[in-house]
Amino acid sequence: MKSVIVFSLAVVSCCALPSKQDRKFPDDFIFGTATASYQIEGGWNADGKGENIWDYMTHNTPEVIKDQSNGDIAADSYTNYKRDVEMMRELGLDAYRFSLSWSRILPNGFSNQISEAGIAFYNNYINEMLKYNITPMITLYHWDLPQRLSELGGFTNPLFTDWFEDYARVAYEEFGDRVKHWITFNEPREICYEGYGSTTKAPRANVTDIATYICAKNLVIAHAKAYYAYVNDFKDSQGGECGITISVNWFGPLTDSEEDEAAAEIKRQAEWGLYAEPIYSQQGGFPKEFSELVAKKSDEQGYPRSRMPEFTEEEKSYVNGAYDFFGVNHYTSYLISATEYLDDSTAPSLYSDAGVGSYTPPEWPLSASSWLRLAPNSIYNALTHLKEKYGDIKFYITENGWSETSGGDDYNRIKYQRAALESVLDSIDAGVNLRGYMFWSLMDNFEWMEGYTERFGLYSVDFEDPARTRTPNKSAFVYKQIIKTRVIDHDYEPDSTTMTIDQGR
Ligand code: NOJ
Question: CB-based contacts of 170: which residues, under 8 Å, 6+ apart?
Fold first, then answer.
C-alpha cells in the first residue's frame, strides 16, 4: 500500500505544471522603481527653475493639500541624487523611471530659453545611473506644467501640442544619446479629469462638463507629435523607443449579467479608453460606445454639439499607431454595476456621463490611500484584457505600489507586491509581451493632494531632517531578493536592517 502512495505522488510531481514557487522571471525582464520630479526633487526655484502649476497652487492655496505641505524641498533629490542612485544599486535595479521637470529645463515653458543648470542636473543624474549600468527611463510630463502655459489654458489650448513637441525635442536632443526609453505623458486621466474636469489635481480647473474631453484630445495629439518627432528625427541615430503611460486599473462587472458587463465596458472606456483607443485601437478616435453616450447626453442637455470633440479622419490616422510600447500604471480593481452604487450627481461630468456604479469589497485589504486595495488577479485581468483588445504589443508596468502611513516593517506592502508579481508572472504565462515592472516608489515622496500623509516608498524618508535621510523598509530587502533571484520566495524573511551593495552593482 505504501509503495502505491509513493508511486502516485511521484506521478503527480513529475507531470504537474511547475508550481508557482518555481516560476522565474525571464532573464531580460527589467525590474525598476519609479518616481516623479515634483514629488521628489525639491529645489523648486533653484538655479533659475521656473514656476509650475504645483508650485503655484501649493503656495497660493496651501489649504487644498491635506497637510498643507508642498514639494518645495520634498525628498530633496536635487541635492541627494547620488544617494538616490546608491539606493538603486543597493536594490540591484535594472532600470529607474523618473520624470523631467519642464520648468527646470525651460523656465518660461517655451524652448527659446533653455536652462543650463537644469540640463546639468539631469545629465548628472543620468550619468550617475549609467556609471552603474542602471537604465534610465524618462517620463517627459508627470503633472508639473509650467505656470505660464497653464495661464494660456494649458492642455485645453490646441497650441499645447506644439509647445509639448518643442519641449520633447529639447529633451531628445540633450539626453537621447544616453536615454533609450521615453514616456510622453504619465496618466492622462489624472491630468485631464482630475486637473481640468474636477478639483483633485492642479490646476483644479473644475470645468466638469467639457474640459476633460478637450484635454484628452489635445493630449493624445501632443503625444503623437512628440512620438513622431522622435521617430522621424532621433530614432535612427539614437536607437530608443517612445510610448505613453496610462493608468489602467481593472474594472470588471459586479455580476455576470449583460448589463453589468456593458457597464464595466463603458467605465473602462471612460477611465482609460479615452486615451488608449485613439492610439492603440485600429479604429482610431475616441471609444465608440462612450462617445455615443456623451453625444446623446449633450443633446438632451441642450448643448449645440457633443461635449466631446471629434477627431478628423486625418487626426485619427495620425494618432493611431503612434507608439512603440504601452506603459501601464496599475494599482487596483473595481467592480462595476449598471444599477447599484450609482453616484447621485447629475451635473454633466465624466462620471455622470458614464453613469455606472462602482464597488470594492471590504475584504480586499485597504492601504493608507482610500482608493487603493489589494484586489485578486488585478494585473492579470488588466493586461490580458489589453492584449486581447490591442493585440500583441509591448507592455511595461510603469507603476505599481502600496501606501502606508509610516515606514519600517511594511508587511502589507510586501504582501501586495508579491501578489502583484505573481499576477505579472500569470500574465507572462498567458502570453502578454510584458518587458518590465517599475515599483512605485523608490522612496517616500509628496503624494499630491495627500501631501506627506501617504507613504509609498521602499525607502522611508525623514521629512523632518534637513538631510532627508533615507532608510530601507522591510519591503526594500524583499524586492532586492526578488530582483536578485528572479523568483518570488513567499517564505523569505530579511534578516538584516542594513543594506549593502552587491558586487558588480
Ligand atoms: C500614480 C501617479 O503617477 C503617482 O504620481 C502617484 O504618486 C501614485 N499613483 C500613487 O498615488
Answer: 105, 106, 111, 114
Q: What is the pLDDT of residues 75-114, one digit of tens each?
A: 999 999 999 999 999 999 999 999 999 999 999 999 999 9
Q: pTM for the full model?
A: 0.96
Query: Does the annotation count 271 as an active-site position?
Result: no
Q: Are 126 and 175 in contact (CB under 8 A)?
A: yes
The Cα 382–Cα 375 span in angstroms is 12
- Report pLDDT digits (tens) over 254-281: 999 999 999 999 999 999 999 999 999 9
Q: What is the DSSP string of 26-67?
A: -TTPEEEEE--HHHH---TTGGGPPPBHHHHHHHH-GGGSTT
Whether 502 is covered by a domain: the verdict is no
What is the DSSP annotation of 92-112? T-SEEEEE--HHHHSTTSSTT
Helix (H) or strand (E) holding 489: none
In a domain, 191, yes or no: yes
Q: Percent of the chain at pLDDT above 90?
A: 94
3-state secondary structure labels for all residues of 209-221: CCHHHHHHHHHHH
Atom of ligand 1 nearest to the CA of 456: 10
**Known catalytic residue: 399?**
yes
- The angle, 0 to 180 degrees and rounded to 10, between the axes of the packed helices 474-485 and 411-429 is 30
Domain membership flag for residue 493: no
DSSP 268-281: HIIIIIHHHHHHHS
Parent domain of 298: 24-485
**Cβ atoms of 441 and 458 closer than 8 Å:** yes
Question: How many domains would you assign to the chain?
Answer: 1
CATH of the domain at 131: 3.20.20.80
Residue with CA nearest ligand 1 atom 11: 447
Task: Say which of 187, 190, 241, 454 is annotated catalytic.
Answer: 187
Which among 286, 287, 308 is positioned nearest to 298, based on CA atoms? 308
